[in-house]
Amino acid sequence: xxxxxxxxxxxxxxxxxxxxxxxxxxxxxxxxxxxxxxxxxxxxxxxxxxxxxxxxxxxxxxxxxxxxxxxxxxxxxxxxxxxxxxxxxxxxxxxxxxxxxxxxxxxxxxxxxxxxxxxxxxxxxxxxxxxxxxxxxxxxxxxxxxxxxxxxxxxxxxxxxxxxxxxxxxxxxxxxxxxxxxxxxxxxxxxxxxxxxxxxxxxxxxxxxxxxxxxxxxxxxxxxxxxxxxxxxxxxxxxxxxxxxxxxxxxxxxxxxxxxxxxxxxxxxxxxxxxxxxxxxxxxxxxxxxxxxxxxxxxxxxxxxxxxxxxxxxxxxxxxxxxxxxxxxxxxxxxxxxxxxxxxxxxxxxxxxxxxxxxxxxxxxxxxxxxxxxxxxxxxxxxxxxxxxxxxxxxxxxxxxxxxxxxxxxxxxxxxxxxxxxxxxxxxxxxxxxxxxxxxxxxxxxxxxxxxxxxxxxxxxxxxxxxxxxxxxxxxxxxxxxxxxxxxxxxxxxxxxxxxxxxxxxxxxx
Amino acid sequence: xxxxxxxxxxxxxxxxxxxxxxxxxxxxxxxxxxxxxxxxxxxxxxxxxxxxxxxxxxxxxxxxxxxxxxxxxxxxxxxxxxxxxxxxxxxxxxxxxxxxxxxxxxxxxxxxxxxxxxxxxxxxxxxxxxxxxxxxxxxxxxxxxxxxxxxxxxxxxxxxxxxxxxxxxxxxxxxxxxxxxxxxxxxxxxxxxxxxxxxxxxxxxxxxxxxxxxxxxxxxxxxxxxxxxxxxxxxxxxxxxxxxxxxxxxxxxxxxxxxxxxxxxxxxxxxxxxxxxxxxxxxxxxxxxxxxxxxxxxxxxxxxxxxxxxxxxxxxxxxxxxxxxxxxxxxxxxxxxxxxxxxxxxxxxxxxxxxxxxxxxxxxxxxx
Amino acid sequence: xxxxxxxxxxxxxxxxxxxxxxxxxxxxxxxxxxxxxxxxxxxxxxxxxxxxxxxxxxxxxxxxxxxxxxxxxxxxxxxxxxxxxxxxxxxxxxxxxxxxxxxxxxxxxxxxxxxxxxxxxxxxxxxxxxxxxxxxxxxxxxxxxxxxxxxxxxxxxxxxxxxxxxxxxxxxxxxxxxxxxxxxxxxxxxxxxxxxxxxxxxxxxxxxxxxxxxxxxxxxxxxxxxxxxxxxxxxxxxxxxxxxxxxxxxxxxxxxxxxxxxxxxxxxxxxxxxxxxxxxxxxxxxxxxxxxxxxxxxxxxxxxxxxxxxxxxxxxxxxxxxxxxxxxxxxxxxxxxxxxxxxxxxxxxxxxxxxxxxxxxxxxxxxxxxxxxxxxxxxxxxxxxxxxxxxxxxxxxxx
Lengths: 510, 368, 399
Fold this sequence. Notes:
The complex is a heterotrimer. In chain A, strands 6-7-8-3-9-10 form a six-stranded mixed sheet, with helices on both faces. Chain A has a six-stranded mixed sheet with strand order 16-19-20-13-21-22, sandwiched between helices. Chain A has a four-stranded antiparallel sheet with strand order 2-1-4-5, with helices on one face. Chain A is built from 17 helices and 22 strands. Chain A is globular and about 65 Å long. Chain A has helices spanning 45-52, 75-80, 98-103, 115-129, 144-157, 174-189, 201-207, 230-238, 299-307, 329-335, 344-348, 355-359, 377-390, 407-420, 437-452, 464-470, 493-500; strands spanning 5-16, 19-30, 34-39, 60-65, 68-70, 83-86, 162-166, 193-198, 210-215, 218-224, 254-268, 274-285, 288-292, 314-319, 322-324, 337-340, 370-371, 374-375, 425-429, 456-460, 473-478, 481-487. Chain A folds into two domains: 5-238, Rossmann fold, CATH 3.40.50.300; 257-347 and 424-500, Rossmann fold. Helices cover 33% and strands 27% of the residues of chain A. Chain A is of the alpha/beta class. In chain B, strands 1-4 form a two-stranded antiparallel ribbon. A two-stranded antiparallel ribbon of chain B has the order 2-3. Chain B is mainly alpha-helical. Chain B has helices spanning 17-39, 44-57, 59-83, 92-109, 115-144, 148-169, 206-224, 226-236, 238-243, 248-275, 280-286, 288-298, 303-323, 330-352, and strands at residues 5-9, 196-199, 202-205, 353-357. In chain C, the strands form three sheets. A seven-stranded mixed sheet of chain C has the order 1-12-6-5-4-2-3, sandwiched between helices. Chain C has a seven-stranded mixed sheet with strand order 13-11-10-9-7-8-16, sandwiched between helices. In chain C, strands 14-15 form a two-stranded antiparallel sheet. The longest helix of chain C is centred in the first third of the chain and has 25 residues, at 2-26. Chain C is built from twelve helices and 16 strands. Chain C is of the alpha/beta class. Chain C has two domains: 43-172 and 296-319, Response regulator (Rossmann fold, 3-Layer(aba) Sandwich), CATH 3.40.50.2300; 173-293 and 328-393, Rossmann fold (3-Layer(aba) Sandwich), CATH 3.40.50. Helix content of chain C is 40%, strand content 18%. The chains are: A alpha/beta, B mainly alpha, C alpha/beta. Chains in contact: A-B, B-C. The interface between A and B is large, with 45 and 32 residues.
């Protein structure tokens, strides 16, 4: 009996048609540690966690929980055995209270809720782990960070000893992330085990005790975080050295030669609340202007307005000095604005459509892709073949639906299409989010190359490292306004983080 | 208690399933049907042979099958057409009715004009009425985001009431003033009757040929035109469609209009080719619009395949009438038809999911 | 296993019969010539209330050998508790009367429309030589088939097209309706009677009027509020119509629909009900009054017998109380002895003189006198009745 081993997974094999997602994975997490599971997209992290939480049954291999063999046929089995998962996308009912959400789906809850009892227990748990949230509040009233706490409380409430967190910081500000890390430490101090899935090297270094790195469905190794470095982790993850330093530009930006100018843009969000408030900015030829901000502060709406998908209530925007009619996608496309939306698979692309169809999603109206409203399949095919080759898209063929491609290749298809139109401006929203290290590198190279060619790039991202390494200048958005305009020299994690959280830093305007 | 089996979503659909599943479905239907037949003391082989005979094999059967299939081909195409843009049009029934009304009006009013002119006008009028009626649903959907299933269903009832009103509730233009006792529609003059062709030993109604031609055109439209491309992207992801500058609302309305036109032409066919009268009661009893949805589903929403699925359903329906009688209750016929449809739908599910055997171990820790 | 062989044998016999029929149709022209010698002199078929077609000739639809094959086509299910069921009782009566001289079959739930023609084709191909059609909507298809198959006898119940090989049958439902109306008139306390009626057509209008007159004869203040459903058979719609009448305050209700849905509605409120064309006294003992019922058995038996004897001739049958075509269903236990006696007296009167309840003065809703005092409506008046009498509340479709 290895008393301090909480979870031991040996020789896990899980195959899907045409893919071996887990190919003999070895994984072991101790009681009372934060154990990071690191790997590129497609390395097998999600599959492994789905096996552990009972969503998938492994084709081979075994799972031991505190020294005993277990098999799960559903997530409920796993939860009953003390394994809980906090998903990246929350599964909460907005109109219910925190307490109601927490007991939702309980088997033995009976018909009636003993609310007072639940509230008391939730309060006790949140106090113990510093998960500040009011059990009586309704979920829709909560911030994203608070909702995440509810998800964690939900798992704790059911008595989970092993918690799996799937990229938990993706939705948090740096400050909120720090609070989360404190909570995690408190939980492991009580003898729980945290499995922390991430591909962000910095936070893995910051929070975990040990790291298991997966690559291509296999375990590369498990190492102690102390004594390792981001560089070593990156190498393990990718299999070669990766350099993420400040990029060297071939052609310098010409910030004074404006390609995109917005003047006092105002727009509402889907619920008709003000999302953009008097946004004025400019992007020069070959300039990469970063936009930092916590998700939900108007960045998405800004991108949508520029892409023509969202109407404005005031203000205007201009490309190359010519005003673009707002709220008309085709006008924006014609003006030379390329748009890489945040939700690349369902907005930027039609997921069930083939690679070749997606590559003409915006040009299908033009000769020779279609002639007198009849599609020219030959032209579509040859366009796709060129693009796939030029952008190194890894796909079995051009008829494969894009949803079957890996995240990096999905983004390559999108970029190939957007760049092939010869844009003057590129609006990119979180273009590397969720991608693996190799793909991130490719995407960044493409952006920089485009800037070198004179395209003005508005780069919206929550990844501060990325903004700092790529941008010529960084704007910060908070509650629909631009609250900071920092040169790369001025921008630090701390200064950006403060502005993103709504603190004012003297003297900066857009 | 957990079922020992569970469904797991397929990530991809192997191509071979395309023919394996329908084959297994049909086999399953015949097998299940055989069990039911044996339980009720019938010889399955004999019954199946009679179905083939009376549905498809004999000359009169084939004619009857095509007559039954033609309206279903149109309503099937109608349902298939909107599904391609991700909208469910339950309104084929009502659109069929108004198409019949329009065509009957034209057929009677144009008495004396050359048959070809009347025929074309009836088709156009049927299409126009059906498409206007369906566009109403499209406009409500596009502008106010109302649920098209509900609005199109409601409009079916309204169209039914309109039929009743025209024949039973008023002395309208379409009501036969000479109808003795029971009010009926004014019969179409012979010159407005659509032709029926004798090709070899087969008797083929003009409406059926029309269905084939239209089915092929609609398929071409969806597969090879800008319009079809836009529709398919809207169905796949409305966000992506908006993002790439497609006019989703206008497209929704147009697709509804096209879909309604198909059902409307079906209504015109019913009047021009078969009944030669706007038969308020017969139309409502037939339920072509609803059966069309089944046809479309079995045709996997391919408008061209819908024509051929309609033949199968038409044949089954016909065989059903031939089969039933004192020794074969119509309920049993319905059961058999239901089984066939049920297994076909089950086959659809198998295309998308696989069945896994859940092993029976207890929930948690079982030492091994 | 036994059943299997029985089935196989039946199938084999059936195929032989089809072949036999095929050969008989080859000699069709001979038969026509032969039969044209026989005139409608009445040396063959006679029946009370039956008027032979003027200039009609005997149609030989007798089998060459073996039993005659007779078929019925129904629009509804055989157990609809109404019209179709009544016709199916007719089929059973024919079977019972003629035994192994007849082989019957039927098709139920046949939708009006192109399907009817196909069904007739199949039945003829199966060797049926006398075919009964029981829904008005089948009439055009029957007329077309009568032209197509001159040696098949077509019996239509009910419509108006009469051909040499297509006859019509119906009966004086208005006589039964009047008697049923008397039961309702005696039952109502507030004088408000509801009526769920199918279509505003002469046949039904006549029935509603007769019913209203019957009610008035028992209770001078009785009114009949009518709702048109525009369907013969649709339990859901019938139920809605009945509910609307009940909520409008009627305390007695009648229906002329093929389903007992009105009875279901009445049962909930416990109010007396007059049914239609089916004896539902056992199912609704507490609210049942009576019903006008049609009995096709005797007529159909006589017609099939005539076909069997090679004496079938087309014509128009209008049965009545006198020959048992029209009967009142069993009285419910809530009908008083006094009422029963009054109804029996009137029944004898109507039996002797069908249609005599439409003796003037009879006023329409707007007060105009439709039948003057002392005069009785003619058969043609009855067939074309297009007004509602003055104690009916309801509207007829306007032009």
